[in-house]
Structure formats: structure tokens, C-alpha cells
Amino acid sequence: MCVESKLPLGKFGAHQGGPEIRRRIPETAHRMTESPAYQFQNGKRFAVLEFYQSLANCRWSDIEQIGDDLKAQISTLAHPVFLLDLTRLEFMGSSIVALIVRLWKATQERGGGMVIVNSSTMINEVLEIAGLTQVWTVVESRAQAEELLSKPPYYVVGQARSVYLLAVLGWVAAAGTVFGTVVLQRELNVVDAGTASLIVYGSGAVAALCGLISLITARGVWRLLGLLLLLIAGSLIGVAAMS
């Protein structure tokens, strides 16, 4: 069984100004042989998750529980991006591969990302056979991973705020196309058809541009909202052009 253990805060945690480090330790018959199965540390720009070889000694059910714990920790990240260090692993079975896939999916659902550090030829072959090297970014050193995670698309200054503001602007512009056609011209009759068309085309173009930018640059649900906004803006402009 794998049981969770925390290092003293005075050594690695808040009392020293650093983030808390969480570890899960496999429970063995001899307590002296215990060693951590993983280490998770939340940094300012990205989190760092390190797997230890003792993780391979955990039962499948314990690894499932580790996955639940790590997903819960990832869910608390403002921007779910993390470095996964596999350099301490000597081999990797299907249970660990399944664990990594779970964590990767959890980050993708929230528009995040993951960079893997691996220097083992054997582990790299496992990833290649599974076709995961075509999906994941795998590098040989932490320095390479940290450099990647410090640049777009993994790290963008004010990314969450920018995506939110872009979405708000796009949907306000989409509403403007409806407002210009239905309210100002047809209901209130305060503008002529030409002015209403300018409002519709201008607002529609802004909405379409915001949707296109979100579709290209954003991830997860924000990317889907960008696609939806692009389709709606195009439809509104098309309806206005035919009317």
C-alpha cells in the first residue's frame, strides 16, 4: 500500500517561503526501506512532479489513488501546467503510463500542458511504442523543460485574464450585431438600414476576430468557445447580408 507523507514545513514549506511539497510513500514490511513514490511542488509559473522508482512497487489500486490525489492538486492550479520528471525511474510499467495519461488529460481539459523530462532509453522506448512521444513533449533535461515552460504556449503573462477579456469582448460584439439589426432598426427604428448594416458588420467582424484568435491561441473550453463565437459571428453577418 502507498501512504502519503508530508515533509516538515520548516524544511520545504511555507515557513521557508517555498511551496509545500507532498509525497506518497509505499508501505513495505520493513519501514527502513520506505522511500517516496513521488514529489509534487507548485511553483509560480508551473508545477513540478517527480516520480521515484518506488512508484513501480505500488499496486495498481494505489497508483489509481495517487492519480486521484494528483488530479486534485492539479485542479487547484490557476494554470495547470507542469513538468513531469521521470529521470529517477529505472523502468515504467503500464500502470504508470496510465497514470501519466490521466494527468495529461486532466491538464488538457483545463487548457494546460505538460513537458516530460526523461533520460532513459528504455522508458523512451515504452513511450514510443505507445505512440506517446508523438503527443507529448519529451526532453532530456530539466533545464530544457524549464526553458520550454517559461515560453508560450505554456506560459503567457496574464494569459488567463487575456483569454477572459477576449471572450467578453467577442460575445459583446456578437450581441452588438443583434442589437444593431433587431433593436435599433426594427424595434426602435432610430437608425436607417445603412447605419444598422455598418453596426452589424463592424460588430460581427470584431466577434469573428476574437473567436479566431481564441481558436488559434487558447486551449480547452476557451478554444471551443472561440469556435462557437466564430460560427455565430459568421452566421449573423450572413443573415444581415441577405436581409
Q: What attributes characterize this protein structure?
A:
7-stranded mixed sheet; Transcription Regulator spoIIAA; 243 residues; single chain; 2 domains; 8 helices; alpha/beta
Structural commentary:
The longest helix has 29 residues, at 159-187. It is built from eight helices and seven strands. 53% of the residues lie in helices and 14% in strands. A seven-stranded mixed β-sheet has the order 1-2-3-4-5-6-7, sandwiched between helices. It folds into two domains: 2-149, 2-Layer Sandwich (Transcription Regulator spoIIAA), CATH 3.30.750.24; 159-242. It has 243 residues and is α/β, with parallel strands linked by helices.
Low-confidence stretches: 3-22, 27-33
Structural class: alpha/beta
As a percent range, the share of strand residues is 5-15%
Specify the CATH architecture of the largest domain.
2-Layer Sandwich
Spatial strand sequence of the major β-sheet: 1-2-3-4-5-6-7
Helix content: 40-55%
**How many strands in all?**
7
Question: From N to C, what is the helix and strand string?
Answer: EHEEEHEHEHEHHHH
Sum up the overall morphology in one term: elongated
| Rg over alpha carbons | 25 Å
- Termini gap: 69 Å
**Overall mean pLDDT:** 76
Count of helices?
Answer: 8
What characterizes the major β-sheet?
7 strands, mixed
